[in-house]
């Protein structure tokens, strides 16, 4: 897919989304681009908040959405430049500078001219104003993102960082070409490239610790000035931190206090007291000089341990006016030069090991969790029923890694790509955050879903990790089909709400998750011996009319409750994040129509079907394990046997299985033996076994 094809598909997606959801094309465009940037970890989340008005001296104000990153208190404000014309156009520097002024005026009017008096109190824009006013003393940076369906002029290289009332303001243009580059990137996110020679004449001194021979990585020990680390963080913010551990890092408040004390009271001892940071990069450029080796630049730089150290240095310099000139930080930098899947696996292993001094669950490293891999495998294997007169079945494509769907198409011919899209249509792409929203809504956690993609996914990952440890067989084809049914329900309710006369273009995401959660709650309380028959939705690949009619009633009641003036918190967006909000919604006096019984199934029957699905998964898991063990071959297991004996890795439970594997093909391990062997293999890898 080239750039022109990408733009054409983007515009088509905007038009179809606007038509399906009954919203303006500009709003659809902002929502789609924001979703791209959330998945690429440029934005922590997204809240739609359209406002178009005037301030003092009749100056124009405009906002299309926002996202407050509570990790580093960057306020992201979004403004759109959408025309929707198939003809390509160019956004000039002067046009961009003019548009950038609109959200800045919005901020100024909010703080200095009582803009809240002009805005409807129950609108999303009013919530944004409230968030700006409440967090005025915390916000460290404003980032203005201009979304355009045109192309940025070649004369635009960058926009100078400005200040508003002493706070840094950064400007970014996200045009079609910049979005396209995200999809071309192997990591599925915008690559962070740092030129260290711009900060120091020779770059950053380092010691190359790589072993001789062919390895998928090189490692360097570095000493990075505290000032430089803070400046890099100020420029890139939380984008610099590897996403899978970011939410984990942000909870360790006590660590922040200790680091801050050292920065302020003993900066010269920082190197000795602090564990330093661990980072990865896809490319490291080294310059050899008579004085030694220096790192001049890195590509796709990510900090995978030491996020609190990095953020604390920046915070101390900003809030406490701390002098960082005496501070040096040790850094371990690993260059990963391998394919996409191997890169993810290696990053996760480094991240897990680097964070071993803290208690970190498997949920914190969810991208390589076995659940993730299994759902991907099922999604590639199982076909969804054909719909709409189509003569072929299709897959629901589950994205285990960012950008996987587009990466799969990059090296295809046009004919191959057409076949791929016929079998994996874009509207049947489901991401891990999509799955988390749909599942957590049905689980009765709308207040968690309302907290945003990152917080919601973290909770979902922890639940999966807990359930997996009890019985991984529960995550099977039936679970996948139910998940797709819930996602279909989620998307259906999204469209349904926009068509209602009472809908006022605000809080749709909150209304959707609360409505689905309330439907599940009402079914459980009013029909305790029954549950929703997800197979009906899966088989038809659509939501039955009886559910649609019921959801119209439920969604209206939810909307009225969320926006009720008597709510405990005036800010609707913040109110929806509270469990008290959910407790209040659950008390709504609603009764389901008796027609709903046609889509319910007896609980005992559902349990019977689930039991069969678990047995089937157990058999599949055994076959997969057996295949993997046999493919490794007897010599592999003989070498492993020697390794675990030398390392004194306990393996008495697997001893018989290992003996059988070493005798292949005379003897073959069964599925039970094979699963034991794979468990032993994982323990051996933790002890340093890395032979493939």
Overall number of domains: 4
Shape: globular
For the secondary structure, the number of strands is: 20
Q: In angstroms, what separates the terminal alpha carbons? A: 34 Å
Major beta sheet, specifics?
A: 8 strands, mixed
* Average predicted local confidence, pLDDT: 88
Low-confidence stretches are: 244-255, 356-364
Instruction: Quote the beta fraction.
Output: 15-25%
Quaternary state of this entry equals: single chain
The DSSP helix count reads 27
Rg over CA atoms, rounded to whole Å, is 27 Å
Structural class: alpha/beta
Estimate the helix proportion, in percent: 40-55%
Report what the structure shows.
The strands form five sheets. Strands 9, 10, 11, 12, 13, 14, 15 and 16 form an eight-stranded mixed beta sheet that branches. A six-stranded mixed beta sheet has the order 1-2-3-5-8-7, sandwiched between helices. Residues 244-255 and 356-364 have low confidence and may be disordered. Helix 1 (3-21) crosses helix 2 (25-39) and helix 18 crosses helix 20 (534-540). Strand 10 and strand 11 (217-225) form a beta hairpin. It is built from 27 helices and 20 strands. The longest helix is centred in the C-terminal third of the chain and has 30 residues, at 603-632. The protein folds into four domains: 3-184, Restriction Endonuclease (3-Layer(aba) Sandwich); 194-359, no CATH class; 371-609, no CATH class; 633-686, no CATH class. It is globular, with a radius of gyration of 27 Å. It is 49% helix and 16% strand. By secondary structure, it is an alpha/beta fold.
